[in-house]
Amino acid sequence: MSARNDLAQPTPIEDAPGPAGLRRRAFLLGSAASLGALALAGCTTIKALSLAEAEQVYGPLPDERFPIEAVNLNKVDPKYWRRTVRYDSAEAPGTIIVDPRNYYVYRIEGNNTATRYGVSVGRAGFLWSGDAYIGRKAEWPVWTPPKEMIERQPEAAQYAGGMPPGLDNPLGARTLYLYQDGRYTLYTLYSTRQAETIGKGISSGCIGLLTQDMMDLYARTPVNTKVIVLKA
User: Fold this and answer.
1) N or C: which end of the chain has fewer CB within 10 A?
2) Which PANTHER family does the UniProt record give (predicted)?
3) Distance between CA atoms of residues 112 and 90, nearest Å
């Protein structure tokens, strides 16, 4: 079951305008949850990172359990670097809005502003939309491929009992798990060290942020935070 919500797609000044009318489809198994009172207007950059600032923000994290190297910024379009933007919304501060069409995640900050992060999204056939919330969080999580993935990719069966944390773990250093009606949806916001994937559709529906961006979002996102995923 789906509902109609008239949304004005946020338009950063460096990006081409998006369509004004988006139709929400049900999240996963046909949730009838409404997108709520979401009022989005034009979006312009308030604070963008200079190259020198970006090199600091995306620098190495040697004190992590598994040390993280600096992001190779040559592999990331600057429009996907973290920045503060104007984002008119009726949602409460802290709400996370995922815009898979434009490869962005927004954290509502209040006063019609948001922190914007560039992301990777689900590839064709794995896109979804709707309302969810953060049901749990994890640092350096164990990754367990769902049975549906193992059926599609038998090579993942070796991790059916769980892949230990580490630099090769697909979930990376931090993960926010999306829940709906008390149940894990199998979708996450996760951290990636693969800079070249930002701005692309590569996953089975999960949303990837650069590790440094994910750690920033993770630290400011408590359990039960509302998440809205727009239609791609």
Assistant:
1) N
2) L,D-TRANSPEPTIDASE, L,D-TRANSPEPTIDASE ERFK_SRFK-RELATED
3) 9
